[in-house]
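Hi R.,

Here's the input for the copper (II) ion complex you asked about:
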Amino acid sequence: MMKQWQVAKRILPLLAVFSLLLSACGREDLSAMKPQGPVAQDQLDLMKLSIAIMIVVLIIVFAIAAYVLIRFRRRAGQTEMPEQVEGNFKLEVIWTAIPLLLVIILAVPTVQTIFAHGEDLTNDKNAVKVQVTSHQYWWEFTYPQYDITTAQDLIIPTGKKIAFELKTADVLHSFWVPSLAGKMDTNPDGTLNKFSFSAPNEGVYRGKCAELCGRSHAFMEFKVKAVSQESFDRWVNAMKAPAVLPEDTQLAEKFKTNCLSCHAVGDQGGPAAPNLTGIGGKEAVAGILLNQREGQEEGKPVLDNMKEWLHDPQSVKEGNTMPSPKSLGLTDEEIDGIAEYLANYKLDYE
Amino acid sequence: MAHAHSVKRYRGLMDWITTVDHKKIAVLYLIAGGFFFGIGGIEAILIRIQLMKPMNTFVSAQVFNELITMHGTTMIFLGVMPIIFAIMNAVVPLQIGARDVAFPFVNALGFWTFLFGGLLLNLSWVMGGAPDAGWTAYTPLSSAAYSESHGVDFYTIGLQIAGLGTLIGGINFLATIITMRAPGMSYMRMPMFTWTTFITSAIILFAFPAITVGLVLLTFDRILGANFFDVANGGNPVLWQHIFWIFGHPEVYILILPAFGIISEVIPTFSRKRLFGYSSMVFATILIAFLGFMVWAHHMFTTGLGNVANALFSISTMLIAVPTGIKIFNWLFTMWGGQIRFTAANLFAVGFVPTFVMGGVTGVMLASAPADFQFHDTYFVVAHFHYVIVGGLVLGLFAGLHYWWPKMFGRILSETLGKWTFWTFMIGFQLTFFVQHFLGLMGMQRRIVTYLPNQDFDLLNLVSSIGAFLMGVGVIIFLINIVITTRKPVDAPNDPWEDGRTLEWTIPSPPPEYNFKQTPLVRGIDAYWKEKMAGNKEMTPAEPVGSIHMPSATPLPFVMSVGIFIAGLGLMFSKDKFELEFMNIIFNNYIVVIIGLLITFGAMALRSLYDDHGWHIEPEDQDEKGART
Ligand code: HEM
Ligand SMILES: [Cu+2]
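And here is the predicted structure with copper (II) ion in place:
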């Protein structure tokens, strides 16, 4: 015990230094080193502990190596034989015991955290349940308690635990929001994964697919948007409101026959493609074309992004399964019309 | 001359195709491995050009996925493994005082199946698309439904054939080391490189059957419509992950243990000291191999195996740090009190130690499952395994090649160029991979063709790419060194480093065809060193001069491998529709497969039915000169 404490005492200042170093880089809404929630925070703590231990090891090894290499280089005219040492039982026991000790120091909190994070919250009344279904190359989020489904932007209330159930509709993907929690794979039926996280602060966090899933793996991004409980409730209601269709009845007809065969808006359409309800207010088009947002330098107006996507989906996301609207027989004007309609389709909830 | 029967001698290319001499097979492995290493390196450079800046469009996403898949697959199976085998073939029989490996014919067969498997895999670039599901080929992405080109078929069948060669090679080394050690060489007197070869071969023996089965199942799924990994039909894709990693994790140790062995030879030689803690080194090696089989699921923490599994695999993985630590400190204390010479070979060996420690400590970090939820499938992992594989193994291989080059070719590589190789490669390596740790922590996942700007990824990716170019320069300098050295006369002495400790340094460089005119008598660890210290110039022979039996050269291993290659191609295209009706007939009815197998089995039959007793080299023909120039 005494020894453990001494090691810990030596590690503490290092920990402080590394906390500083680690928090120096990366975006707050993206970096695992700038956690925005308790799960990512625990994971970072574990990372810091392991890094501190590892730095101790590195310093010892590098110091011995440097000393040996400088002190024992062969000098000119040196001819006598060095003593042929067999080994040293005491030394060898020491460098077996010390790594073992270090491993124990790391293993104990590791195991604790595994079990703390591995709790199953599926039956927790206070948690918001979200079923995540991954597709090549988009994310579907279903809220069984509210009977709503959305895509690409995951809206959650701040402070609440979100209990996820993950599955895939095709190949394996991995659900990852670095600043909120580590990743978890989405497996096919039969091996569903569960996990949870929460976001205490309002904000938009970047999520990524972390498992190679095909050509547009790199573009399979999503956003987690944490809003206040009131906003969340209003969002739920807005999602349940009847669909808003284009005012131009001809365009509405085109939209219904060509787009709603796969997509859904409000109470209309199908589940084969991302739900488009309120798409004009989302953070990005197709998960990857960032929309302009207050307090953020990057991004283009949502209408530009919408047009870029609708005029050529393949050039944005190679290999995605949406047919090009042009090939469905829509004219450029009609495409622009639909783009405009979708860009203006926003839910008022914030 | 009583035994003056004529022996068939081949010349030129035929000499190489028919050889069963372990020293020539080593050269073949080296050339083939170097060739594939070059291809894998070019693929790496292309990847790094693509990732040099955000939203780059240098290659398409499809080509990028093919590049990463082929880069990983090529480097691991076709690049470094054969170079390891080259060194093992060149050195192990000499280190144990043997005249060849246990099964010279099988040794040649192992090389040729490896080569034809590798060629088949790389043919995919020109025959309609390379594999694109990552080197891990996770199902369902690698299933026929999601990877429609023949790419993954090239992967399964090419690796199957190449893997056959590895398995054969491993078994051969096991048999060689068990049965052919010189008198007096007990296990605990074996040189460390021979020890690690022995353990590596044992890992191969247990790990490769797993991948063999996995590849067969995947081939069945893809070509014959089976459902081992298809959920809709009762299969399970997570099963593939288990099979793959039960092979895949030990594979990492197949790669790194020989590097440990090389370092354990080079450091003592250039410190003029015996290896510190020899028996703990042996023990640590065995322990690492054993633990290597117990930790495969640490690649699967995020797959969702449950808390208990994650906890157990976390702890067992961390334990590997203990025997590895033993090795590191033993190397450091080998140098302690010695007289260190910084030859090119030793620079690589000395550089290996801290670099490998870096890779090792990040490995322990990855072992902590909750933290791995953040690290997994990010550039942190890319950085970690390159520290191990490049910073560990490739530096080890460079050390070994510079060290044994004079023994293999009779010429010493230029020390100046060797040092240039070291510094450019080492600096390039650190630039490339150190910054990738941070990229991963900052949220950059791996295997992505590009990334959005403004995520703080831009600068570090640029640094990484520049480092990669520098590593490329290092490799080119090494090639130049080889070319220059090859044009020099063969003049290396038996013991060019003057402080050689093991048996290979007692015979000429390069060794004669039969290696040892008289099998030496081994009287301790570092047998040659011991004799030198006792004031002897040579080993005491364990037998009188006599007629030496040699195996005959034969083209059969080559022919067998060609047959397997043809059968593989035939199987792969057996479901295709061709323009030419003739092609449809021969492929769709498995006629090509049958022809290929007939060639292979025919050659096997010839080998079994026709008794070849080999030939003898008589004492009067045994001159002390090397067999090759
Ligand atoms: C010039 C030296 C090298 C460079 C610059 C380099 C770079 C890279 C890069 C950028 C990746 C892709 C990371 C990703 O997004 O997944 C990669 C993957 C990989 N590399 Fe290297 N590499 C080099 C040498 C090697 C060597 C020598 C080996 C093994 C002997 C190796 C083994 C691998 C493996 C196994 C992968 C994973 C492939 C996959 O994801 O399927 N690399 N490398
Ligand atoms: Cu994905």
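One thing worth noting: The pocket of protoporphyrin IX containing FE (ligand 1) is lined by residues B 41, 44, 47-48, 68-69, 71-72, 75-76, 79-80, 134-135, 382, 386, 389-390, 394, 432, 446-447, 468, 471 (CB under 6 Å).

Cheers,
M.
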